[in-house]
Write a structure and sequence with these properties.
The protein has 269 residues and is an alpha+beta fold. It has seven helices and 13 strands. It folds into two domains: 153 residues, Nucleoside Triphosphate Pyrophosphohydrolase, CATH 3.90.79.10; 100 residues, Transcription Regulator spoIIAA. The longest helix has 17 residues.
């Protein structure tokens, strides 16, 4: 498999002409669907809505002012059921071109605004005889997004004030019961930037991909209730499962596929 499975390639093919760019101080930071633009037009003191773009009001000249103003809007939209899955977790919003931090926003609203969220994912790899296998997680049925779908062994969004390594260590313990002395063996292997359309907007991602070779006797255990179970799956079977549409989440499928391409027929070391 040298190209992503057909369903995955199709999911990652975004037509941005169907979306409106979001800007702050003339810097683009996200994308919104036209119907949601109509919702934002109800808040002219915060959003200046034009036919071909939306911008945060010029009067919001600082990161804190933008953070506070957007938060007030989100409280209204939350009450109306237009922003769901509230996390009480702040994400940093960056300008796409320059990487300049612009403001912070509640994680639940990131997809509504097509804001690029940063995450850390871990491929847990095991040498089984002469072949390689990968630990796969199944997301809990009560997860707000993609319940019951297959996932990487560990994955989590990077909250404001944290970095990829801190997030990885935290999530490794909470999601898979991996102690620090094992998790510290993880190595950053790639950074994947990709977008895909979801029912409530655009899921825009920058994922730091880590690989960790685990002892053959290690068995993951979930500690935060977000995983229904784990399965150790041979690489060949992972390839077969990746070919099945939406068995995996989109981001987990891309991370797992990326891992398979890098490892190829190599043995774990």
């Amino acid at each position: 498999m040298t190209r992503p499975p057909g369903w995955l390639a199709e999911a990652l093919a975004v037509d941005y002409t169907r979306l409106l760019p979001l800007r702050a101080a003339e810097r683009r930071f996200g994308w919104v669907a036209p119907d949601f633009a109509g919702v934002l037009a109800r808040f002219p003191d915060v959003f200046a809505c034009e036919p071909e773009r939306i911008a945060l009001a010029e009067a919001l000249g600082t990161a804190q002012a933008r953070t506070d103003a957007v938060a007030r809007v989100l409280e209204v939209l939350r009450a109306e059921g237009l922003v769901t899955g509230w996390r009480d977790e702040q994400y940093e919003v960056y300008a796409e071109a320059s990487g300049e931090p612009l403001f912070r926003i509640e994680r639940a609203a990131v997809k509504r605004f097509g804001i690029r969220g940063r995450a850390a994912h871990l491929n847990g790899i095991v040498q089984t005889g002469r072949s390689l296998a990968m630990w796969i997680a199944r997301r809990a049925q009560d997860k707000a997004t993609d319940p019951g779908r297959l996932d990487n062994l560990v994955g989590g969004g990077i909250a404001a004030g944290h970095d990829a390594w801190q997030t990885l260590i935290k999530e490794a313990r909470e999601e898979a019961g991996i102690p620090f002395f094992v998790a510290e063996g993880a190595r950053l292997r790639d950074t994947l930037a990709f977008d895909y359309v979801v029912p409530d907007g655009l899921d825009s991602n920058e994922v730091e991909v880590f690989d960790l070779v685990l002892p053959s006797g290690f068995v993951p255990r979930n500690e935060d209730g977000e995983v229904d179970g784990f399965e150790l799956v041979a690489f060949d079977e992972v390839r077969e499962r990746l070919a099945m549409p939406h068995l995996f989440t989109v981001d987990a499928a891309l991370v797992a596929w990326n891992c398979l391409q890098r490892w190829g027929g190599a043995a774990a070391s």
